[in-house]
Amino acid sequence: MTALLEVENLRVSYGKIEAVKGISFSVEAGQVVTLIGTNGAGKTTTLRTLSGLLKPTGGKIVFNGKPLTRVPPHKVVALGLAHSPEGRHIFPRLTIEQNLQLGAYLRKDSGGIGKDIDRAYELFPILGERRKQAAGTLSGGEQQMLAMGRALMCQPKLLMLDEPSMGLSPIMMQKIMATIVELKAQGTTILLVEQNAQAALSLADQAHVMEVGAIKLSGTGQDLLHDEGVRKTYLGED
Ligand SMILES: Nc1ncnc2c1ncn2[C@@H]1O[C@H](COP(=O)(O)OP(=O)(O)OP(=O)(O)O)[C@@H](O)[C@H]1O
């Protein structure tokens, strides 16, 4: 079976600094795949490159059978790859509903857009209750929900989530992780970058540990959850 996303020997540099040093991994349709690793490992750089925001210096990206290596961001979205970025980047002065509508900016099917907005409200009822409120009035966790809901509005074939639990309370983090499990059950394919290795590995089908721009270890989420080295370095065990 051909994977939905194939990344082969991907290299990305900022000037003379090589941040991603030839990584390879794939994502099958219906899977949750996670990239974990310490700060500066190159996870965000990888997602930004897949989104077309950064140009790779080498390697190959194939998404849904099409080369993605030099495709601009709006075309990447049109091909079905959505990115919920680190730091959320919602529009604070627009209402929650307007933020969701912006996620569908490439679509023309107003009926379908309306249905998907309702779906976002089903997934995150708090957003529905506050639909007319400025998005800047939401809490950090609620803004994360909005960022995820907005990314889903382009009906992605693959949803990329960068650090969705960052800065959230344990309860809010659990809610976000439960939503990822629910999205997976609905058939959404997800590439998840997470600092919270325990949570990410618990729900991932496949996982990759990144260190200084390279993939150091790969396996199923459960394999890595029980790996002694991973437990010491990423799960804080002695
Ligand atoms: N705009 C930039 N210009 C120069 N170097 C950068 C830039 N963005 C990131 N880097 C460097 O690239 C490397 C990888 O950073 P990246 O943000 O991809 O890591 P990360 O694994 O996502 O870490 P974090 O969890 O802290 O976000 C780091 O050494 C970082 O300092």
UniProtKB/TrEMBL annotation:
CDD domains: ABC_TM1139_LivF_branched (cd03224). The keyword 4Fe-4S does not apply. Keywords: Amino-acid transport, ATP-binding, Nucleotide-binding, Transport. GO terms for biological process: L-amino acid transport. GO terms for molecular function: ATP binding; ATP hydrolysis activity; branched-chain amino acid transmembrane transporter activity. InterPro entries: AAA+_ATPase (IPR003593), ABC_branched_ATPase_LivF/BraG (IPR030660), ABC_transporter-like_ATP-bd (IPR003439), ABC_transporter-like_CS (IPR017871), BCAA_Transport_ATP-bd_LivF (IPR052156), P-loop_NTPase (IPR027417). It holds the Pfam family ABC_tran. Residues 5-237 form the ABC transporter domain. Belongs to the ABC transporter superfamily. This is Branched chain amino acid/phenylalanine ABC transporter ATP binding subunit LivF. It comes from Actinacidiphila bryophytorum.
